[in-house]
What we know:
α4 runs antiparallel to α5 and α7 runs parallel beside α9 (211-221). The chain has helices at residues 3-48, 54-68, 76-94, 100-132, 136-149, 151-160, 165-192, 197-207, 211-221, 223-237, 240-254, 263-266, 269-283, 288-311, 315-349. The protein is 84% helix and 0% strand. With 350 residues, the protein is an all-alpha fold. The chain contains 15 helices and no strands.
Amino acid sequence: MPLGNTRQTIKDFQQSEGDLLKQMIRENGLGVLIALAIAIEAYFLGKMVPVIGGAVLGITFGILITSLFKLPANSRKGIKFTSKYILQLAVVLLGFDMNMASVIRVGQQSLLVILLTISAAFITALFVGRLLKVNKTLTTLVGVGTAICGGSAIAAASSAINADDQDISYSISTIFLFNVIAVFLFPFVGHLLNLSDTGFGMWAGTAINDTSSVVAASFSYSDAAGNFATVVKLTRSLMILPVTLALAFVTARENREQQHFNFVQIFPWFVLAFLVAAILNSTGWIPVTITGTLAQTGKFLIIMAMAAIGLNTSIQGFVKAGPRALILGAAVWFAVMVSSLIVQLLTRMW
């Protein structure tokens, strides 16, 4: 090919790429900016009230704003973009907060408890969800959020099963309530049961949903319990990968008969990117300052995505579905708490 033609081809490609970028900004820019503005407020307020956290504040602010004000019609596409694609990017960046060496070391002690509590969560969610006639998607999200790691697990699972923003909002709000209760309840019950530091750390790390709540509850018990619980929680968080992949396969099988179904499109590739990020972080090849910044960016983007989800949530629908979601969440959380203690007790008896 002549040099002149090659240059023209490159020029045409760059121009089309630039046009595509301009179109994306034009279509999504306003919605992304609205979610970003809410996320900034929620982030700083969440630092002041860590028990609540920025993600919950973000989704709450989003619900309030969309309930009180009429958002511009041209902001909706950007809000949807944020709640889906920014959310997936956030999950990937959270992988830089994982250390596989610590996970493997503590995993030898905690894996059995983690697997059994996750099983208890899903079995209870399935049974109680059917009993209460809660839709399958919401049941799955509450089960995943309680079983693994709250908002981050819900974020990953929601993309794998194509959950709508309404169900994501219900599940996040439900998980939040029991996180707050856990911070105050767990240390009291732990002292009542005379749990050791390791025993309490195992219990908190496997039965409290959100990392911030695990840290708050376990360090109030003792520093040793806090250190152990934090690593157990990180080990438990890695279960996002197999659980999300399993949900994707189930979704694929259920949709196999659809005429335009494409498994490549539904497969949660971002979860594999999350695993790669975790492995890279564990090698030590990337400076801690960089991985730390990437992980913090991921946590901020989670808040931004939660704000967008709140903006897409109907308060009327939330009030209607709220009580059943709360009962479901309470049942699953109770099953996880009790099963964690029982497994530890049986292990000691053996």
